[in-house]
Design a protein that fits this description.
single chain; 15% helix; 41% strand; globular
Length: 157
């Protein structure tokens, strides 16, 4: 598995050489806990999701990636925001340096069983009060903040 390192607003970050559309799902259970996965490649907690494949829409990508990473079947219910900050780059061990391009959707679980994949070391619903104490990249924390603000319009940035 390729290792990754996220850089955010870091003047020493490598220069991006790739841009890949990706999406993620923000799924909240009835108690307000948020579905998170602990990434095997970085050790950080993150929202489930991934990058598009040819022949699918971004929504289909997020549904597929969430199933692969968590074992849960979901349906998209809304849009949290579009995150394309050029100051967030992800460097992979194979030399790719990707500029952030993520659309985060709201979704709900419609089936399946919570399962850890080979891309994660843990998958579970975390309560909002647990999140400040966990390793979570600042760009994911931004999405979590936008969710907690109860925005009526998607974030565009």
């Amino acid at each position: 598995m390729s290792r990754r390192r996220d850089y955010y607003r870091d003047p020493h970050a490598p220069r991006a050489n790739s841009l890949v559309p990706g999406g993620s799902a923000l799924i909240v259970d009835p108690t307000g806990a948020i579905l998170m996965q602990r990434r095997a490649d970085s050790g950080n907690w993150s929202l489930p999701g991934g990058t598009m494949e040819i022949g699918e829409t971004l929504e289909q990508c997020v549904v597929r990636e969430t199933k692969e990473e968590t074992g849960l079947d979901i349906e998209i219910t809304g849009l949290l925001g579009i995150y394309t900050d050029p100051e967030h780059v992800i460097a992979y061990s194979d030399g790719e340096v990707r500029q952030e391009f993520n659309v985060t959707y709201y979704a709900q679980v419609i089936g399946g069983h919570l399962t850890v994949s080979d891309e994660s070391t843990d998958v579970r619903f975390l309560r909002p009060e647990q999140l400040p104490h966990e390793p979570i990249h600042e760009t994911v924390r931004l999405r979590l903040r936008h969710h907690s603000e109860g925005r009526t319009q998607p974030y565009l940035g």
